[in-house]
Amino acid sequence: GGLGQLGVGLAEMLRKQYGKENIILSDIRRPPAEVYNMGPFVYADVLDYKNLRELVVNNRITWLVHYSALLSAIGEANLALARTINITGLHNVLDLALENCLRLFVPSTIGAFGPSSPRDPAPDLCIQRPRTIYGVSKVHAELMGEYLHHKYGLDFRCLRYPGVVSAHTKPGGGTTDYAVQIFHDALSTGHHECYLRSNTRLPMMHISDCHRATIEFMQAPESQLSLRTYNIAAMSFTPEEVAEEIRKHLPHLRVTYNPDTIRQTIADSWPVRFDDSNARQDWGWKPAYGLSELVTDMLASIREKRTNAGLPVS
């Protein structure tokens, strides 16, 4: 799942640390030229165990980052496909990691919590009971990874990501995607129609903090880890709060609210804040971006992208 929202940026950071040739990006889609030219890229279908096995053996892989998944809103519209990719694909990767003694990272999500979970804040260990196939599949991943760690010593690591905000990739069908789209709309038309209520508070994180957390967690000595799955947090905001922050730069931004039943119901079942005290204590996690830094960076990045593409900037 390397061509999704997170893979390309993570590969870029890892290549700076470990060398371009030592990080292989993979997906089932054809990469854009700039990604293909960044470093090694291979076709890898998470449902094709033999192909995955060949890649691991032929390239002497030691770490595997498993980003392949159908996200919350998309998953609800494609239940059978989500179950196949998110659960069957996961089992292929778990088997592969066990067979080859790989260090395995599988992200989890805010969506792994449900309406009966503590919401403010949600701790690492609590009742989860999610109401989406995406959330159910991620709880399954957390528990399977932990089980295989305790039974066979698998070096399984998992972070529950909040909503991730990035200027570099298009929204991918998640419930928190409005927090990316609003910046594009602010700079293109000056109007954003939000599919959540104005007061819907959710945990969010700048993508560079997300990448850094992933790498620091993967590099942490196993002796420092008291858990296999950790929450990580940076900030929590509502659509109205991010709109107000954007208006400090673009006073003309207009936001209307037209809640989508499916996404609003999903958001209402999720935590409004993460308790990430264990990540901070065990392996030193600390975010760099708050809301004002996130807004400044997103507007600058998207303005630059639109200008370079010859598109008008509002």
UniProtKB/TrEMBL annotation:
Q: Pathway, per UniProt?
A: Amino-acid degradation; L-threonine degradation via oxydo-reductase pathway; glycine from L-threonine: step 1/2
- Using the record's annotation, list all stretches that form the NAD-dependent epimerase/dehydratase domain: 1-233
Task: Note one Pfam family from the annotation.
Answer: Epimerase
Which GO terms fall under molecular function for this chain's record? L-threonine 3-dehydrogenase activity
Enzyme Commission (EC) number: 1.1.1.103
Biological process terms in GO annotation: L-threonine catabolic process
Q: What does the record give as the reaction this protein catalyses?
A: L-threonine + NAD(+) = (2S)-2-amino-3-oxobutanoate + NADH + H(+)
Which SUPFAM superfamilies does this UniProt record tie to the protein? NAD(P)-binding Rossmann-fold domains
Query: What family does the database annotate?
Result: Belongs to the NAD(P)-dependent epimerase/dehydratase family.
Function, as annotated: Catalyzes the NAD(+)-dependent oxidation of L-threonine to 2-amino-3-ketobutyrate, mediating L-threonine catabolism.
**Which PANTHER family does the UniProt entry name for this protein?**
L-THREONINE 3-DEHYDROGENASE, L-THREONINE 3-DEHYDROGENASE, MITOCHONDRIAL-LIKE
Task: Report what the protein is called.
Answer: L-threonine 3-dehydrogenase, mitochondrial
